[in-house]
Amino acid sequence: MKTLKGITAAAALLLAGVVQADYAVSPESPDANIDLMAPSTWFDSMPAAGMTMPFNPMHPAGWAVIMNPRTHTDFHMAFTNPATYAQFMTPQFYMQFMNPKNLMAWFNPANYATFLDVNTYAYWMTPHAYIHAMNPANYMQAFNFANYAPFLSPETFANWVTPSAYSLTAEPTGIVKGGAGVDYVEVLLGDSTAPAKTPTE
Questions:
Q1: Whole-number Å distance between alpha carbons of 78 and 97
Q2: H/E segment holding residue 65
Q3: pLDDT tens across 128-183, in order?
Q4: How far is residue 17 from each of residues 71, 87, 152, measured CA to CA in Å?
Q5: Who is most buried in 58, 70, 170, 198, counting CB within 10 A?
Q6: Mutual orientation of helices 72-79 and 60-67 as an angle, nearest 10°?
Q7: What's the pTM value of the predicted model, to 2 decimals?
Q8: Distance between CA atoms of 151 and 99, rounded to whole angstroms?
Q9: pLDDT digits (tens, 9 = 90+) for 9-48
Q10: How far, in whole angstroms, is CA 4 from its chain's centroid?
């Protein structure tokens, strides 16, 4: 009986979709503690497989998620997960294109912090930006049937008949606030094999 209840609970979680984490306020890069001379540290800070991430193409900080050192590794893990793409089957994704908060965000200089931070570009010139791509957990997600459950979930389709899903005033999601958060210039000019330090260290 306990086994049956466990299976039922697991199935319910799968049909409800996977949990989305909040990357808007990530304190520092998940790659910041990588020591290239210690392979055991390479994937320690990566998020768990099976996570999803909202995509907001109508907000400048939505595109910053791809470049920002604090969110790029998360972005890679999420967008190699088939479940992430189920969001394109919901009205919430398309309502972003008509949300005034997204449109006005383009006129707020603070939303360009990632692109104006020299540490963002220094990050992409270090091995830290690429080491996570070697993690097989990214790619094995495609072979996990559970990651396709949201495409068949009644909850996904129920969004189309849920009035709140058509809100034009929802707070923007899938964005990252602030700059790189890590002093990658120091890493680039110094010992690129050492862990990156935060500006406060």
A1: 22
A2: helix 60-67
A3: 889 888 989 999 999 999 999 999 999 999 999 999 999 999 999 999 988 988 88
A4: 21, 10, 10
A5: 70
A6: 90
A7: 0.79
A8: 25
A9: 334 434 344 444 444 444 455 676 777 788 888 887 777 7
A10: 33
Q: Which of 4, 46, 38 is nearest to 141 (CA)?
A: 46
State how far the Cα of 176 lies from the Cα of 27, in Å rounded to an integer: 10
41, two tokens: 């540290």
CA distances (Å), origin 184, targets 29, 95, 103, 110, 117: 10, 36, 31, 21, 10
Q: Which of 201, 181, 169, 188 is nearest to 30 (CA)?
A: 181
| Chain Cα centroid distance, residue 96 | 17
Question: What are the b/e assignments for 147-168, b being 16+ CB within 10 Å?
Answer: bebbeebeebeebeeeeebeee
Could you state, in order of their start, the residue ranges of all structural domains in the chain?
22-189
Tokens of 46: 């990566």
